[in-house]
Specification:
By secondary structure, the chain is of the alpha/beta class. The chain contains 16 helices and 12 strands. Strands 1, 2, 3, 4, 5, 6 and 7 form a 7-stranded mixed sheet that branches. The chain has a 5-stranded parallel sheet with strand order 9-8-10-11-12, sandwiched between helices. α2 runs antiparallel to α4. The protein is elongated, with a radius of gyration of 48 Å. It starts with a helix and ends in an 8-residue tail after the last helix.
Length: 627
């Protein structure tokens, strides 16, 4: 191990030295490149000299104007004027170019321009005098000597100043750059040496502290993994809670809509209200789970000690569980042994929550015709303190060993067909057991059922009569409603002749959807999961269905996979058939996932049917009739 560390250290040092050498070489390369560019800049006097030479040539032409004026030719005046104006324009252009390329003192440009303007003005003045009196050559000569010649000399001085200044400026920059280039080489060498020394020092210090750093790194990585896992679990929990809450909400709103449209039919209204009641209780259960978990995490959950009649409490518990086992034709048996105490002091509400939660899971994950048993017996008695053991046994689908390790963790839920929930039930149950001073254990194997063992302490009451007021006052009950019918009517839309495929695993939601779709003329074909919807789509001719309304969370095959299978089926309408997600998944990432799966639109439950019909009307290119 030590040899490996030394070997790595040598590799790092060689790499740093190589990088240092590379830095020096590249620095010299860039310095050379800068010098080549500066050499190019040194050509600057040539460009300036080129413009100045043209100005000088035009000045020489102007010196020839005097003999031309004195030649006594009649037509030479207009020619001279034209030439003067042309020369003046060219000089102005040259001055503009000089202003852009000249890097010396700007006053030199100003002086040259002033001298050129003065020269042009003096020559034009001499020309004006000659035009007035062509025989007065003496006066013309005086103007040339007294005005033109001094301005010409000023122009020559200004031109030379510009050339000298430009050459001097560029040479100064070049000399300064040469000095900086040498300093840059020295700087690169010194920096390379410093990098080498500091890197060696850093590697030595890293070697000394390596063991401690690795230990701290592992601690941080473990903490990060735990935090990531907790965040992922909470995100999953929030998504699941949103879905579970929106499902009964959709049933409540849908049944309300049906009841409003059937005010004259008391039977339908009665059925709708009963379903609304069941869905409301389910929603309340979900909310209570979330609130209970919040109280537990905040340390605010308390255990009350109240007198209750154990036999009557047990009778009420039996009625609650039977209402859940009866629809699945399951047998439920309570076996009480070596227990004759009737009045106990304890928290009957928490006891009910613990056992109802475990027993409800047992019925939920036990197949049709299965068996659920509750064994109750006294473990021991110490004075007025009694320990009671509750054993819940089922022959259901069981749980894997991997999941058992996380059974009591918040937000955890096994992927077991047949049940949905928030993933908080067992976490709440265990915390309640601990709060009551008890213990809970579980034994389970996949396909072999599950056995929960709950040991709880109670105080035996010496009171002779408990009174009815203590019976059942804290017991929580919940039952699942049976299949029911509903009717609805939405006025203003007419989709007669259109057929839609509806994929929904919730019976009530399917009923609401079907009735509402049929009320506006649709012919609705239903599927209880994504796989069934896919099969129905593939078995029919293309364009049989005008649209597909797809739930997302369904057994066997979810809506995302079903949509991808439809899009990739190769049928003529596979890419064009409208697929709309109707789901209780309402987060932004859920909407994005729907689009990525190939769905055209995403609508969250509870369903706004007016919005749905407007959307279908738009997709099917029908004339929208406002409600």
């Amino acid at each position: 191990m030590k040899f490996l560390q030394i070997y790595k250290k040598i590799i790092v040092i060689i790499m740093v030295c190589t990088l240092t050498l590379f830095y020096v070489v590249m620095t010299n390369y860039f310095i050379s490149d800068i010098n080549s560019k500066l050499d190019y800049i040194s050509d600057h006097p040539y460009k300036v000299a080129y413009e100045i030479s043209k100005i000088r040539a035009r000045i020489s032409e102007k010196n020839a104007y005097l003999p031309i004026l004195l030649s006594q030719k009649r037509n030479n005046i207009s020619d001279i004027e034209e030439a003067l104006f042309y020369s003046q324009n060219e000089n102005n252009k040259a001055m503009l170019r000089l202003e852009k390329i000249y890097s010396g003192n700007y006053d030199d440009i100003v002086f040259l321009k002033k001298a050129l303007d003065g020269l042009d003005k003096a020559i034009l003045n001499s020309l004006a005098v000659y035009k007035q009196n062509r025989t007065d050559t003496v006066k013309v000569m005086e103007i040339f000597d007294n005005e033109v010649e001094p301005q010409r000399k000023d122009v020559a001085i200004a031109v030379q100043n510009i050339i000298d200044s430009a050459n001097g400026r560029v040479m100064y920059i070049k000399n300064e750059t040469d000095v900086k280039s040498k300093n840059a080489v020295i700087y690169a060498a010194v920096m390379g040496l410093l990098i080498f020394i500091l890197t060696g020092y850093s590697l030595w210090g890293e070697y000394i502290e390596n063991i401690e750093l690795k230990r701290q790194k592992n601690i941080l990585l473990d903490a990060l993994k735990s935090a990531d896992k907790a965040n992922a679990a909470k995100r999953n929990f929030l998504s699941r809670v949103s879905h579970e809450i929106r499902t009964p909400m959709n049933a409540i709103i849908g049944m309300t809509t049906i009841a409003v449209s059937s005010l004259d039919d008391k039977k339908i209204i009665s059925d709708c209200l009963e379903k609304i009641g069941f869905a409301s209780k389910h929603l309340l259960m979900l909310i209570n789970d979330v609130l209970d978990m919040s109280k537990i995490e905040d340390g605010k959950m308390r255990v009350n000690s109240e007198l209750f009649n154990f036999k009557e409490w047990l009778r009420a518990l039996k009625e609650i569980i039977i209402s859940e086992t009866k629809p699945k034709e399951q047998s439920f048996e309570i076996i009480v042994s070596d227990f004759d105490e009737e009045l106990l002091e304890g928290d009957s509400l928490r006891l009910s929550q613990i056992l109802i939660n475990i027993l409800s899971n047992a019925t939920k994950f036990t197949p049709q015709g299965g068996s659920v048993k509750l064994h109750i017996k006294k473990l021991r008695k110490e004075g007025d303190k009694i320990w009671v053991r509750f054993v819940i046994e089922d022959n259901g689908i069981g749980m894997s060993e991997d999941f058992l390790e996380h059974l009591y963790e918040p937000f955890e839920q096994a992927d077991r067909s047949g049940g949905k929930g928030t993933g908080l039930g067992m976490a709440i149950t265990k915390n309640m057991v601990i709060l009551m001073g008890g213990m809970i254990n579980v034994q389970s194997h996949l396909g072999e059922g599950t056995v929960f063992i709950v040991d709880l302490p109670f105080t035996v009451s010496r009171t002779s009569e408990a009174g009815d007021s203590v019976v059942n006052k804290n017991i929580v009950s919940y039952r699942v409603g049976s299949e029911e019918k509903a009717a609805a009517q939405s006025k203003g839309f007419d989709f007669t002749g259109f057929r839609v495929l509806v994929a929904e695993d919730n019976e009530i939601n399917m009923e609401v959807l079907t009735i509402m779709l049929e009320s506006v003329g649709f012919e609705a074909t239903t599927a209880i999961n994504g796989n069934e919807a896919l099969i129905m789509y593939l078995e029919h001719e293309p364009y049989t269905y005008a649209a597909i309304l797809m739930d997302v969370q369904m057994p066997v095959m979810d809506g995302y996979k079903a949509t991808r299978e439809i899009r990739g089926s190769g049928k003529n309408d596979a890419s064009s058939i409208p697929i709309i997600a109707l789901t209780a998944n309402a987060f932004d990432e859920d909407v994005t996932e729907s689009y990525l799966a190939g769905m055209n639109e995403h609508m969250s439950k509870p369903i706004d049917f007016k919005a749905l019909f407007k959307l279908l009307d738009k997709i099917l290119n029908l004339s929208l009739i406002h409600i």
